């Protein structure tokens, strides 16, 4: 009886600790972000107020209205930036995933000479500090004439994301037992059929998370974009954030409004795609 | 999700060129990385041996041997930034890993609303590093910032704490922003790893009478290790993204208290226009990055070997 | 050949610009690529580009629109890559000397009579090694002293101040008074006497003008560092003293212009040396708590009797590689002509043409705040000075500012910090072959 009760008590204590821990963690994660969302609806005088205004006296859409307003009224070509960001991020993510699946599969399933060195070599390309890369890349792109184009940005982002997708997908393919595909092949599937029907669904969790990462990296990247884009033809949203700064001033409320427009699509996409992560769960069932 | 159309061209290529299949699969990755990374890198390697100034393009032909490297080797500001970067990376990565692990475990235990929690957990990943920089610059502002305002309103502090100026606090603030931004990466990868854990060893452990700590320590954790190392390695490569953030928050200052390699190199290269020298410093710091990569790769391989997934 | 073509263009231009009108269809079929500074404050002017297009038949294609620092990075990258065949670029007097090869001398394309219409000091600062590299737009910047008026109408404060410092409390005219009053007004952490930009080029600029106000100079005529002098030490001591006394926000060494502006607007700063662009913001009740309580005075003087007056301005330049420099120069003149400057300065920025200064002063009559602001800035502008005209100005600031910060934060003494900065700048100048 007593052991049972202490057991139950311990379980309850654990549950409460779990809840509190989760609550604190989620608060730390959310508050700085929600602060930005809130700021986008507040007049500037309240954001930077001292003594602080904790309960907003006034919430309005002024920053959004100004952002969509015309030239000279604080207008920023948001929709164009949004389209550029979308086209560049989605395309580069899809390509990076395809290339990464090929590479990841090769590393996970084939044995060949110099594999370890090649792998580290691929990864090391990501280790290059962007600062050392951005100028020569700019010069190269300028010579080919793909500065300020979607193509140039997509190319750069694919390269940036490929080591990452290869690595991640490789890791997930390794989790798939070789026997699974072999069994399928014995059942009369070709290697490709076995791949798509057996190994791919199992590694889907990995591919989904690689996809989310690649997309978010491209969606949020600033350093390269600020170098390789010039004008509204290809400027992405993170670069557009800087439209709210001028030599002496910074329109923080306006910047927050654009930030919200950047965050929402990413959030929606993540919410939709992340369910594929659950696919990993079925793996246990497959094997068991 | 992804269309299966690539099997056709790949299949064609393989039969026509008779390349080994692994090479065919890897070729696109290799080609893209060569074009976008390797060639520019060679260009900047070359320029690190010249007195290259951005504003005087002809200076790229002015070969000065290892002058830039010697200058960097003798520059105490460079080595101070180097040491600080190593310290910053070590602290930030380890804390991110621990917090990420904790977060993933907590989220995985939740039964209701997990889908929402997972999305919330990834919330900071939606923030562009440059936005994070502005955000925390304002949050940590000593006069009208959110943190000091909150502390003063709650009566916890009666002074304006100079978060971004004080020697220790400034590094803390930057690390906080970095950890806030990147813990999700560990969290989500470890969470995916948790989902991929086969259930039977865990059940076997339970049958054998293991406590939950024991089954975590001896079953779950070894299985998670490859995921943790993947995340570690990816983050250590990726950590230079923090450049945008640090540049906005403190730009290495004040008085070089938060100077990291990236802010130093970025300023030397673009603001001072001394690209040759900046590239030399960049190359020295690449060794740092490669060291981390190789280290985590070794760890990854051994963790995989333990699980019988080596090769 | 090229010379003659240029000469012909010059003649045509002289005819048209002298009367202030453009010849219809003069640049039919010409397309000018332009890289113009972006941001709210600057973009209203670009609405006039279509007028120029309609009148001349030329076309302007804005291929880059970024903020000032990003644009600087882009120009440097362009020089490095050789992609400089675009025509018109935004420029800034503090940055212009860094691009010695990028921009052409405008003298052959702009008649002397037109050049004479701009403020002489601005044209002087836009002329590097005898070449007129840019024409200034109505974005002239010099700092004046913003203050909270209510602080000077409280008899209790006035009495307490007199008791402590022995002279009457009034809007400060010297930096010594600013220092005294800043300490007097401070009630940390809720209220601070003043604040200053604490990093990057900004603090070096502030230090530079203080050195001048103290009677010293930053560089000698041949660009040897000259700030490790008595005047230089007094100037730095002013910053250090205020920081140690806690009369500035403790984070001030991490502040740039936006932080300073937000601080002033939050109503927690008594005295704030700042740029003209903020006047409208500070006096806007929806953005600022000091609206209606804001006074503007000319920049105070240092112990040598000089006003501080570090100044700069935006303008437009034409690239050396531009295919049609006549058309480009015509656009640059158009964007800085009287109508353009009237348009820009209506929103608050200061003009760079004599006639437009008169015009805005006239317009401000009846608006007490506007008149006060203009008078303060006009007075300060009289003795304003530009940054030292060396291509290594920005590089030098990057060597100097960490040392200034170290002295302010107490990591080094004033003597050590200035000696270290002097040595670093000296080494850099020698390495670049300046002397």
TrEMBL record, chain A:
Assigned keywords, A-Z: Cell membrane, Membrane, Sugar transport, Transmembrane, Transmembrane helix, Transport
Subcellular location(s) per record: Cell membrane
Keyword Transmembrane helix: yes
InterPro entries linked to this entry: BP-dep_ABC_trans_perm (IPR050901), MetI-like (IPR000515), MetI-like_sf (IPR035906)
Domain ABC transmembrane type-1: 82-273
Assigned protein family: Belongs to the binding-protein-dependent transport system permease family. MalFG subfamily.
Protein purpose: Part of the ABC transporter complex MalEFGK involved in maltose/maltodextrin import. Probably responsible for the translocation of the substrate across the membrane.
Protein name: Maltose/maltodextrin transport system permease protein MalG
Source organism per UniProt: Pseudoprimorskyibacter insulae
Annotated gene: ycjP_4
Automatic annotation (TrEMBL), chain C:
Record key words, sorted: Signal, Transport
Signal peptide: 1-23
A GO MF term: maltose binding
GO biological processes: maltodextrin transmembrane transport; maltose transport
SUPFAM superfamilies: Periplasmic binding protein-like II
GO CC term, one of those recorded: ATP-binding cassette (ABC) transporter complex, substrate-binding subunit-containing
Family recorded in the similarity comment: Belongs to the bacterial solute-binding protein 1 family.
Protein name per UniProt: Putative ABC transporter-binding protein
Naturally occurring in which organism (per UniProt): Pseudoprimorskyibacter insulae
